[in-house]
UniProtKB/TrEMBL annotation, chain A:
Region entry Disordered, spans: 19-55, 77-97
GO molecular function, one term: small GTPase binding
Organism of derivation: Drosophila melanogaster (Fruit fly)
Yip1 domain span: 145-312
Regions of compositional bias (Low complexity) in chain numbering: 77-94
The entry's keywords: Membrane, Transmembrane, Transmembrane helix
Membrane-topology descriptor: Multi-pass membrane protein
Name of the protein this chain belongs to: Protein YIPF
Gene: Dmel\CG4645
TrEMBL record, chain B:
Pfam families assigned to the protein according to its UniProt record, in alphabetical order: Yip1
Acyltransferase listed as a keyword: no
Region entry Disordered, spans: 1-37
Cellular component GO terms held in the UniProt record: Golgi membrane; trans-Golgi network
Annotated protein name in UniProt: Protein YIPF
Chief place where the protein resides: Golgi
Organism of origin: Drosophila melanogaster (Fruit fly)
All copies of domain Yip1, residue ranges: 67-219
Gene: Dmel\CG3652
Membrane-related topology note: Multi-pass membrane protein
Subcellular location: Golgi apparatus membrane; Membrane
Residue intervals passing through the bilayer: 110-131, 143-165, 171-192, 204-221
Family: Belongs to the YIP1 family.
């Protein structure tokens, strides 16, 4: 803490005329550094940014030098006070705070939620591609890309699209499996409700559970570990996890269309391929957070298992109808059979109707 | 003599009150009508004329949806009559038939179709506003509702096709009809709503509209 005081005294001597302004500019910054919240650091950075702009307008190189020294001192004090990744967060939060402004919006206005939809088309497409292709995202994708600007546009609309693509594809698969000249096929609208329930539960509850597990299993931090994992460990927010999980479901939209092809080997191959691709990306993206947890191995197995179970559940419930043997005994018809041909027709109709009942 | 004088004064006061009442009415009517020609107060007109004027306004909106050339006409004065009529009509037809065997009836109920249309329009509108669009809530719901007209027309055509014995050719005809209605509705809503978004976010706003009409069209095609 001596270095900031020295800088403060130095500024006081050089600018005796503007002393109150300088003290007012620097005091909140030091207060922010003293506090532990990232928001305080962000606001401090914002104020510092304003001061820097004012000084640069004068064109004084000594002021720039003093500002740089003050920023370095803040960063160093931040590193000493908390985790290893704090200085980068401070600078990044400062820039973000400067861009966003300090206005606090009410929870019940649309403008509050617009910050979660602050994305452009290419960003959404980039995130969708990153969620499908392993090794495409950079190592610090979680902190630098998702953590800075988590959005809910992709998670929401990918989830809605997946719900209806599974329901529609499931009905098409049912039609291709059952529709014959003797049986009148009806589409099952309840698939929409079942798909909506399962997918929304998966996309919302699982990130919350994972976030709680990250919080619960946080490793105790000592100086050596802090120095070692300076650029690798990161604690994601709940919104970031929901964003990542929402985008990770994008791969199942084309896969659900391909599941209509009624070849069992191809269907299971698609399950394994999609689950492993998406799960691998999830684990690669979450590595900075997993490294910081005591149960990283169990979390990795849990993430992959949840993805495989989700894909297999989709296939078994929405696309797979058990084959009904034609030799099954059928219920006796109430009316007496008039002719053997009529009896065969009735039996065929009943046998065809059975898979529909089982589906329902 | 005193009582007679009082009665005479009361009789004199009544005409002036009537005169005061008539003048503000005329001024209000003149100020309200912006076309320059002073109209008489619409409160006195027959109900039939009021209903016919509103029906004509709704019909003009239907025409603009089917022939989407003028952009701002549908957005200037919004109403929810057309969306309500279309939604009720489509939900009535699309609900599953209760006369058949209840075990095999998996079609949507009236309430489910109704909810999909209105909640879908509301969600698409909220998405547009959250992306920073400068359009009001009810304007967007009005446009999405009126743009269901091509889908409703394709539903009528599909019902007519379903009267005959079903073959693959007739199914293909239903598929083509539904696709035309879906494409037309999406294009019309894009013409009206596409300009309210920043250019770099227009695809993000158009995709939910596409998905909304796709789902409604799937219900139309699947109903048999």
């Amino acid at each position: 803490m001596e270095t900031p005081m020295a800088d403060d005294l130095l500024q006081f001597r050089d600018y005796s005329g503007g002393a109150p302004a300088q003290i007012n500019v620097n005091s909140p910054t030091h207060g922010g550094s003293g506090g532990s919240g990232g928001g305080s650091a962000g606001s401090g950075g914002s104020v510092g940014g304003g001061g820097a702009n004012a000084q640069r307008q004068r064109g004084d190189p000594l002021a720039d030098l003093i500002y740089d020294m003050t920023s370095s001192a803040q960063g160093f004090s931040g590193a000493a006070s908390s985790g290893g990744s704090q200085p980068q967060n401070s600078s990044l939060d400062g820039s973000a705070g400067g861009g966003g402004g300090g206005a606090k919006l009410s929870l019940f206005t649309i403008e509050y939620y617009q910050q979660f939809f602050n994305v452009d088309t290419y960003m959404v497409l980039e995130r969708i591609a990153n969620s499908m292709i392993p090794k495409r995202a950079s190592g610090n994708y979680l902190r630098m890309n998702i953590g800075e600007n988590p959005d809910l546009y992709g998670p929401f609309w990918i989830t809605v699209t997946l719900i209806f693509s599974i329901a529609i594809s499931g009905n098409i698969a049912s039609y291709l499996q059952q529709a014959t000249d003797a049986y009148k096929w009806h589409y099952n609208f309840h698939l929409v409700s079942y798909a909506a329930t399962s997918i929304f539960l998966y996309a919302n509850i699982l990130p919350a559970v994972l976030w709680a597990l990250f919080k619960y299993s946080l490793k105790p931090v000592d100086s050596a570990d802090a120095v070692e994992t300076d650029s690798a460990s990161y604690m994601p927010s709940l919104l970031s996890l929901m964003c990542i999980y929402g985008y990770s479901l994008a791969i199942y939209i084309p896969v659900s269309i391909l599941w209509v092809i009624n070849i069992s080997l191809l269907q299971w191959l698609l399950v394994i391929t999609a689950a492993l691709l998406s799960g691998t990306v999830l684990i690669a993206v979450l590595t900075p957070a997993l490294r910081n947890s005591q149960f990283s191995l169990f979390l990795i197995v849990g993430i992959l298992s949840a993805h495989v179970v989700l894909a297999a559940g989709f296939l078994l419930y929405f696309f797979h109808n058990p084959t009904v043997p034609s030799l099954d005994p059928v219920a006796p018809t109430p009316a007496a059979p008039a002719a053997p041909a009529a009896l065969k027709a009735v039996t065929q109709a009943v046998v065809n109707a059975v898979p529909g009942n089982q589906t329902h | 003599m005193d009582s007679k004088l009082d009665m005479f004064e009361d009789v004199n006061t009544s005409p002036s009150l009537e005169g005061d009442m008539s003048i503000p009415g005329k001024r209000t009517t003149t100020a309200t009508s912006a076309s320059g020609v002073p109209e008489y107060n619409t409160l006195d007109e027959p109900i039939r004329e009021t209903v016919l004027r509103d029906i004509r306004a709704v019909g003009i909106k239907f025409y603009h949806v089917l022939y989407p050339k003028e952009k701002s006409s549908l957005l200037r004065d919004w109403d929810l009559w057309g969306p309500l009529v279309l939604c009720t009509f489509m939900a009535t037809i699309l609900q599953g038939s209760s006369t058949a065997d209840s075990m095999s009836d998996n079609g949507p109920e009236f309430a489910q179709v109704f909810v999909i249309v209105w909640i879908g329009a509301a969600v698409v509108t909220l998405n547009s506003k959250l992306l920073g669009g400068n359009i009001s809530f009810f304007q967007s719901v009005c446009v999405l509702g009126y743009c269901l007209t091509p889908v409703a027309i394709s539903l009528i055509v599909c019902r007519v096709i379903l009267l005959a014995t079903q073959t693959r050719l007739l199914f293909f005809l239903r598929f083509v009809t539904t696709t035309i209605g879906f494409a037309w509705a999406t294009y019309a809503s894009f013409v009206f709503l596409g300009q309210s978004q920043p250019p770099h976010r227009k695809p993000l706003a158009v995709y939910p509209i596409f998905l909304f009409f796709f789902i409604i069209s799937w219900l139309v095609l699947s109903h048999n």
